[in-house]
Amino acid sequence: MGLALILGLAAAAAALILCGSLIFIAYLKFFRAGVLSPSPTSDVELGADGGQAADVSKPAISPQKEADVRRHRWQEVEALLGGRAAAAVIGEGGFSTVYLARLPDSTLAALKVYAGGGGELPRRAFRQELAVLLRLRHPRIVRLLAYSDDREEEDDEEGVLLLEYVPNGTLHEKLHGGGSTLPWAARTRVAYEVAGAVEYLHDGGGSSLPIVHGDLTTANVLLHVDLGPKLCDFGSARVGFSAAVGPAAPVVGSPGYTDPHYLRTGIASKKTDVYSFGVLLLELLTGRPAVGSEGGMTLAAAMAPRLRGAGSGVAEVVDPRLGGEYDEVEAAAMAAIAASCVGEQPTVRPSMTEIRCIMRAEVGSSVMSTSDEGSNGPTKETKE
Hints:
The chain is of the alpha+beta class. It contains 13 helices and 12 strands. Residues 84-368 form the Protein kinase domain.
């Protein structure tokens, strides 16, 4: 009787092992076929081997983009500048200077010249920005018109990007430059439309791999005359699920905007941009800069604890220059979104899609007042 019981149990165990083996084989088969493979736009951080940088030696470019974006010779660039000494400087960065240029049809454009002499970093930033911009077509992302890279072997210029000209300065200048106060409705509209541009990047920007901007700041949001925003400066962008930063690629970002998790781990993900977007929201809400106004603390560190919880402390931190001309319910919603974006744990931060859904529901009277299709992400014309 005992022997029969032992034989029965052994047979049952063998059957279970066989079934488990068949299920595992089937799983592998379907996984390799792509049926069970992870979504290319998932938020999973894959670590050092999971990230995929753009192939900057052979930028991805569609036939439509190839027809739109020209490769200039350096002589053509000099003609657009009309003489370097006389050209108006409209912006400067760590590796580049931006000049105002006039196209043959008298249209104004921005000519971004990457300066040499800085080693590998300017070259990498130029190649990375070029590779990313060639992938993108969105009404709230600055448009690449042409580029030049035929002076790379020399020391003075690493490359040139010819970009559309956005005439009304940066969001940073509007908020902190001492001019007229940016109205509340304009602030919520800017926030919503910038969120749409970042959502487009995170969804792949017309390609199969998500894009992390990597340096989302108010200084990298340009404004048109109607205050419509344009996201710019993709020299720190990364393409792929995530990317671990090693000695060859130092941690980059702007003070006050950089995700503390990224600083600790060197891993950039979509939630890195979400953190920076939260800081941008705090600037729009409070009118204070990301660094320098809170006794040595960053704006996120100073504001987030005060704003966690529905509506707590909001009236005390709203930009006083608005003179009370804002919607209290919308301000509370914006504060709650910002607080959730700058949370310590990236996994509990909302996605850009979730942020825009919340804004449509709770800040709708302002953000939906615009007829700009760009606020709703890529339109029929923007898809590659």
